[in-house]
Batch of 2 targets.
Target 1
Amino acid sequence: MQQKKDNRRVKLLTRRAVLVAGGQGVLLALLAGRLYQLQIVEQDKYATLADEQRINLRLLAPPRGRIVDRFGVPLATNRQNYRVSLIADQVANVNATLDAVAVLIPVSDSDRRRVLREIKRKHSFVPIAIRENVSWDDMARIEVNTPDLVGVSVEQGLTRDYPLGDMASHVIGYVAPVAEKELTGDPLLELPDFRIGKNGVEKQHDLELRGNAGTAQVEVNAYGRVMREISRDEGSPGKQIALTIDAEIQEFAAQRCIAEGSVACVVMDAPTGDVLAMASVPGYDPAAFSAGLTNAQWNALLQDQLNPLSNKCVSGTYAPGSTFKPMVALAALANGISPDTRVTCPGHFQLGNSVWHCWKPQGHGTLDMHGGIMHSCDVYFYEMARRLGIDKFAEVAKRFGLGATLGIDIPGEKAGLIPTRDWKLATFGIPWQPGENISCGIGQSYVTSTPLQLATMVARLVTGKRIVPRLTRAAGVMRADQPLVEPAFEAMGVPQKDLNVVLGGMNSVVNEQGGTAYMARIKDPAMAMGGKSGTAQVRHITAAEHEHGVRKARQVPWIERDHALFVSFAPVSAPRYVCAVVVEHGGESAGGGSAVAAPICADILVELQKRDPARRVPDARVAADRLSTRS
Amino acid sequence: MSISHLDPGRPRELSLPEKVWSINWGLVLLVSLLACVGFGTLYSAANGNWDPWASKQIVRYGVALAVMLVCAVVDLKFWYRSAYWIYGIAFLLLVAVEVRGAIGMGAQRWIDLGVIQLQPSEIMKVAAVLVLARYFHNIGIDEIGRPQLLIVPALLVLVPAALVMKQPDLGTALMLVLGGGVMFFLAGVRIWKFAILIVGGGAGAPLAWRFLKPYQKARLVSFLDPESDPQGTGYHSLQSKIAIGSGGPTGKGFLEGTQSHLNFLPEKQTDFIFTMLAEEWGLVGGLALLALYTLVIVYGYAIAFRSRSHFGRLLALGITVNLFLYVFINTAMVMGLIPVVGVPLPLVSYGGTAMLTVMYGFGLLMSVYVHRDARIGRPGDNEG
């Protein structure tokens, strides 16, 4: 009985167990089927999803192209910089870690506060800089101790370095973070550390310097941290831009000028139009812009009355004053006035009821054109201007490069102004007054020009060709083994004898006793310069002042003092180099440009001729030496 | 598949060496193989390091293996006699968790014994099988139709299930109820009674919904519509499917699983360890692991059918079904077939209590094998 019951129970259990096993078999088959569905049928879908999640495309900023001088000396380079940073989610105790770092490298209280502030703001896996621009030694100290400094790492970056600093700031310009309105949709510009050129050559040639962005495929984890790089396309680095500038001359000119306050100085190689130096002082520190200026620094630059932010060489427009007289002289010669034509200067000039004064109140006596230029006699040129009328000498001035932009490849170039009858009617609706010829004849009144235009004017005078100034060398860096190629410029069409009259007068200005700049002459005859001084009135001199004597410059506030100008060329025997200098408010004496500006020209021209950067490539070893000491 | 009952003689007691000799060493090998799969996967989960998981797991397995072997040679009658005691202890521990449970994984599931963090709900899975095997051992084939006799065993399952549910641990509660249900079924409870229960349960589901915790509701919703919130509750399920699917037929290779190593896959060392294995070893690896489990289950059935006692048969089948439920719920969950519930993959997932209780279960299974010829009497039986 019991046996039977047990047998029935065993049979029931067996039956039921087989049913359960069957159910399990079905479910196991279901699992296998599901695995097949996921891994075979839908594999592509999930593989794509997986890759989308874990692979990020990152843009790589290309290294910015270097800017070098005509011989390859770096003017703007990329410096490897080291940054010590901390990743918050790898650090157990931020303060303790900062203490440990502070033992090795200086960490200020403000650094500490900034780090703690940024940790709160940013993702915990984002590296936060403890210190930027860490020295090699400090970097090495951190590197050696990394096993003890979990979460602290040294990162490399590139910062823009300007070896000449503020001495070439306006030519080179600077780079700075991209502003909101400068975004073009190019994702490169949106990179957090990306800098673009904001001024000077950096801005003008920004696209070439920038290069093409590379890309890197990186694998990120679920928290977005980069785990490894899968592939990398380096992109292409920015192009190197070779300038016509000679770094040594640029440095010399800037240092020479800085003593005189606010000065613009343009040095050119006349036959090629190469700008060898373009110094606008005071400058600014271009590297500071790259790092980011504080409001205080920016306001200080803006409010400085020496105007360090402006490139006075191309953006400063000054009345050329007496440096304009060669133009009037050439116009006179072109219009049939003989160089021997004599004019008597009693110290003033009368037209109708108006009286104009010569800078020399007692008068120059009787002068021909040579004497008029040599002594810079205002009355002589009043008379020439009266005879010619504005349009005649305006035409010559324009042909010599004044009154219009020259197309130099740097931003901010101004046109200056050479007035004409039509211009005045169109602008003011008032006809030209005969009296206006007179003041325009000595480069005052409406006439304005930039220092670059004045240098170009002299380059055209000494070559007789329509020289166009240039700042970049398309052919790249000059090499000793490459022949010098001088670009062909068309002739001005001015008779050489006319040019000789003017150049002779400019020779006498400097080298003949009694010339306005005789004191500033270069005594070595092989290097002697020719030139022309000028004074640009900043303030209208009132009749009362003429009556009672003009106030001494020292009694006038600096900002109201006249500008002192000097344009020059050397050597006189075979002119090659040109130098134009404007010293803002430097007109201390009646001699105007002769006293302040001419000595600057003389010093620069001596240095230039010794070095002769237009024709001689410096020893490669010397250049390499310079390279290593600068960068 | 019938079992011989013709041998009338009372089998003599086995000596200890005989017992050890008669342990099913093939099963021990299979179990160890599964554990080794676990070690390898944990080694990979730690990016090719023995620490922090694989090394601890190996130690635990060593301990658990010893426990299993000891349980295997302990007389099946002892297990029969102490079934209620063991159940009672597990139940008290479960209550103790409610009273002074430490917070772990957002759920109160642990008792910290210092050496080990004990999860009473895991012990209860084995204890419930043990107690039901004893209970139904004593119910004759004629008595099984009496509904009043089913009330006690039903309470033995449902009360701990309710406690586990309250922890809240939906997965374990589900396993207790399903495992218990299968025991009822195997004991011979009429199929129409299960039908009534299922229909009644279906009707009561909306009521049960009200008792679910918000995160449990969220998991159910995200299971039904996984795309609804990929960053939220559906995240685990979707990430798991991505990892498995991207593994393809042969996988990404050992230590090369991208989704798991990049932490897209959560809980890769515990509940989602199958995902990681399937990502690195592909369909081949996934099916191989399922095949290993199937072999163990087949062993379990074979042991059950070889046993001469009803208690032994029920115990062996109950433990085998429990193992299957572990495997099925875990893998179905990581493959997105069922909602995300916290059930580990036995022998492979990292975790002490689960390892210990699963191995304890295997120890009981082997005890059934070692004492396959033992007869266990019922009250009223002449066997005493």
Note: Residues 1-9, 102-107 of chain B have pLDDT under 50 and may be disordered.
Target 2
Amino acid sequence: MSHTRDTSGKRFFCAVFIIAMACCVVVALGMPSSGVAQSADGSAGLDPSQLENASPLPVLSSSLIPLPVQSTEKPLAPSFVQQVDHGFAATVDWMMSFLFYKLFSQPQESITTNSRNYYVRKVDSKDPFQGIDVTGKPIGKQLTIHQAEALKAQGKLELGTGGSIWRTGVEGDRTVEFVTVNEDVGTKYVLDVVDGKTIFRKDLEGRVLLGTTPKDILTLNQAKELASQGRLQPDSAKLTADGAMRSGAVNPYLAESLVGGAPLVVLWLAIGSVYFTFYMRGFNIWGFRHAFQVVRGRYDNPNEPGEVTHFQALSSALSATVGLGNIAGVTIAMTIGGPGAFFWMMACGFFGMTSKFVECTLGQKFRTVKPDGTILGGPMQYLSVGLKQLGLGPLGSVLAIMFSVMCILASFGGGNMFQANQAGSAILFVLQDTDRQELEQVNQEIKSAAVAENFARLDDLQTQKQSLQEKMDGFKQKFVVVFGIVLAVLVALVIIGGIKRIGAAAEKIVPTMCGIYVLACLYVIFANLLDVPPLVAMIFTEAFNPQAFGGGLLGVLVIGVQRAAFSNEAGVGSAAIAHSAAKTEEPVREGAVALMGPFIDTIVICSMTALVILVTGAWDNEAWLEQGLQGSALASRAFESQISWFPWLLTVAIVLFAYSTIISWSYYGERCWERLFGARTTIGYKFLSITCVFIGTIAHLGAVLDFSDLMILSMAFPNILGAVLLAPGVKRDLASYWRRYRSGEFKTYK
Amino acid sequence: MMAWLPKAHVVVPVDFSDESFAAIDTALDLVKTPDSVHVVHVLPELSATEPGVVWETVDDSSRMDHAEDALRARLKSESDKYDQIDVAVAIGDPGHEIAEFASNVDAEVIVLPCHGRTGLKRLLVGSVAERVVRLAHCPVLVLKD
């Protein structure tokens, strides 16, 4: 009787799963194109697929306008470090192309302005440079060396080798010295069709937002004129290496690219969590109260196999997940995605609770209790052992190895280098605060002096800026090395030296720091309580119908889900390693405890950060965003506007969270290493880990950061696949556990 | 030259694998009484990041107790003839600990099963048998299966 019910139940949920995926596809395809906001008069832009059928893309110029001057200087050969960096970046890009493969991307056509001006003079002459236009005709403007120096100070020159102001080149048939002045890096305008007319809308930096006012829009004719004057940048994809047009390429000034869309792995995580929630019939809701009782210690039996109590296991898992993602990541989500992203973050946290439940129950179910009473458990166990029991042994082994490798790399990247780097830069930001403000002031004065052509003052300011910059850079170079060594030593003391007190102290302080942080956030929110109701309304409307942000529903959803997934690691599988250490004979009990993880991490802590960012208006604050503040710096600024001394406390919290995350993730990486290479080789892992702490602090992240995030999310591929296959077993265990719980079979101890 | 007479003390390191328990039978053949056989299990050092260590619920003495109980239970479940065997647990590098333990009990021979580790694990980990052979003060009998 129960067997038939189970089979039909299985079929029902499989059907629900497939229908959910189908709905996703249909909804996404039917959406207006990403990157196009609703225009001012309320009419939506046509999506490009309709555009393609209606009319071909406008031709702005059929040929490339040649540059008036071509440089004859040989570019410097890349140094060894640059080559390594370049090679690494290329490898990461390749990996991203399939691991972060984007579905539902939309085509986007755009133009980018080009405001270069050229000034030439005869070789070795001391005359001022003469300005020419794109056809080589003189435009009657001159540039003296002094003026060029002024422009160089403002960063508007394209410099030659060694930072020289002019380069040698050919103009037509004569050799010249020329200066290239670049007023700005170029503004991007995205193609759109409104009321049947083709226009180009300005892409506002840092947001997925397009201009709607007349000053931010170019007409087709204006664009064509810019093209004929050579005032547009050609699409580099349509050029060969030496700048000529590729054969077969047309319309060189119209760039075509794919934008938006959702990385496959994010959809995989989101759909997986929704599937688990429905399959377990919403256990994250009705099991919550029981989970709370378990964490409180009601069922703690010290004689059961395992290492720590339920509360301690949850704390260990939380010390790994609560980190820079809860502060910096959330701030980024608010600035790029707006209030709507907050809703999707909460949704991810809510559904993610069941993902955590399933993976941690599996972790407990298939763990190994070693002879000395310690535990080895986690996805690398349940993927191989669990799937073998289902008769899928080879698949299980492959998935387990895939997971272990990615977990080790993730523990070097996101769980190590990223934390070290951000902790260092948070401290540096606070230490250099006065210097930075002074530098900003000097920059402003330089701008005004250059415009006024006050050269004497300019020289003084240049020297001042130079010495200030050198002072800051010098300090930074020394600081990152010192901090890198200090942090590496602190980590080494714990993971190699085995000095337990430091690691234990750090992990135990995390709950307290979380509490203080939440209190500070609540203070800021209550101080602005009147702003909260309209904000809440905005959150809901923006979540489904983003007016303030382009990217459409999918764009906002992806941002919210992605940042929340990085933060709470639900579906990724890492927490199952920590939770399998709990003392219990009931896997489902620990799974219930685990579902409190995403609740505390996302629904409590992330929402606190997000509400502060929203309530202080930091997400939309032009002044702050213009200064280039983002991530934890912007969060710091937002708090500063409410509690002036808080940035210092925030920095302490950030460093503590980073340190505890490094320590906890090194546990995950070590267990995976042990699974692959045996317990006696873990010393190799530990040395690599310490090296990464140091490198993470001193390096510019870039590709390394992309790589580490890639690894954390990619762990979800094998983990969710295995968990979906093993979920029927979990569901049976849940039913049996709940039946016994209801009939009062479980002994309570408190 | 080692005379093939009954030994006073024989050490058998075990790692809970079936081969290692089979080695105990060989050891029993070398001695007069079962209590001359000393079975030893070596535990690795615990990482300070282990949850049990962070929360101070697990320490070396609790681990040794656990392991000893597990060892005795396993021997009992195999056969009653193992009842008199001496059981010990050590913590550290297996090669060193086994050699040191053998010297402490004045062992005349150490009996080791052959592990047959192949591939990557063999390359990286090497073999405990090789280290024991090098470090031990007494002859080492490495069994083949």
Note: The first strand of chain A starts at residue 70 and ends at 71.
